[in-house]
Amino acid sequence: MSTQRIQKRVSDSAAIMSEIVLPNDGNGLGNLMGGRLLHWMDICASISSRRHAGMVCVTAGIDSVDFASPIREGEIVILNSHINRAFRTSMEVEINVWAEETKTGRRRQCNKAFFTFVAIADDQKPVLIPELIPESKAEKLRFKDAGVRRDFRLVLSGRISSVDAPHIQKYLETRRQSES
Ligand SMILES: CC(C)(COP(=O)(O)OP(=O)(O)OC[C@H]1O[C@@H](n2cnc3c(N)ncnc32)[C@H](O)[C@@H]1OP(=O)(O)O)[C@@H](O)C(=O)NCCC(=O)NCCS
User: Fold this and answer.
1) pLDDT tens for residues 85-135?
2) Beta bridge partners of 111
3) For residue 157, what is the DSSP state?
4) DSSP code for 26
5) Nearest 10 degrees: CA dihedral of 46, 144, 61, 128?
6) What is the DSSP letter of 162?
7) Is the Cβ–Cβ distance between 79 and 110 less than 8 Å?
8) 40: part of which helix (H) or strand (E)?
9) pLDDT digit string (tens) for 35-73?
10) Is the CB of 60 under 6 A from ligand 1?
11) CB 147 less than 6 A from any atom of ligand 1
């Protein structure tokens, strides 16, 4: 039996979603509430993860989310997600968010985050997902960076020790060399 993993491209699972900020989405100051945006981001990222894995995926973690610019009631919100790297059963999904002014069509980036999703089989256990093949220069760079971020997030969440994180060890070694 072949043990070769299915291979997919970044474009196979990219997702775009648009929303309008309605009065019910607000925080009382005429701006979009952060929790509502996180909900939309989770859905958009979830679509990419499902397209890549070909099955239901759950959110395992979210890296730092910066709310760089408030989004006003009545503005259009555009969410864009793609897979940066597939590991064994988990994958890093990058999501970028823009707000669009209705009258001018001008867009500004408001938010960026990295989500980790895990594919879950019918027995409720994590399951092997297809490999991601980065093609463009930008995709290859994001793929590489995702490997570094994975080390840091697994150490920060206490899932592994820093001595088992090769990228962190490499970083510490470079620091030691530059200081000696
Ligand atoms: C995510 C979950 C499936 C992981 O289960 P687990 O028993 O820890 O499984 P494993 O140890 O085999 O880990 C599975 C993968 O998840 C990754 N993972 C688990 N927790 C993680 C975290 N906090 N951050 C990043 N990756 C994580 C592991 O590194 C592993 O990745 P890999 O297979 O690609 O190497 C489980 O914790 C879960 O079901 N959590 C709840 C998910 C959920 O309900 N989300 C919605 C919240 S409202």
Assistant:
1) 999 999 999 999 999 999 999 999 999 999 999 999 999 999 999 999 999
2) 97
3) T
4) B
5) 60
6) G
7) no
8) helix 34-53
9) 999 999 999 999 999 999 999 999 999 998 888 899 999
10) yes
11) no
Q: Is-contact 58 80, C-beta < 8 A?
A: no
Pocket test for ligand 1, best of 59, 87, 91, 118 (most atoms within 8 A of CB): 118
Is the CB of 17 inside a 6 Å radius of any atom of ligand 1? no
- CA–centroid distance, 27 to ligand 1, in Å, is 31
Residue with tokens 């291979």: 7
Which protein residue has the closest C-alpha to ligand 1 atom 10? 126
- Region of poorest pLDDT, from 92-101, 151-160, 169-178: 169-178
| Domains within the chain, CATH numbers bracketed | 7-133 (3.10.129.10), 134-180 (no CATH)
Q: 60 CA distance to ligand 1 centroid (A)?
A: 5
Which is nearest to 87 in space by CA: 146, 160, 42? 146
What is the rounded distance in angstroms from the CA atom of residue 43 to the CA atom of residue 86? 18
Give the integer Cα–Cα distance in Å for 164 and 154.
10
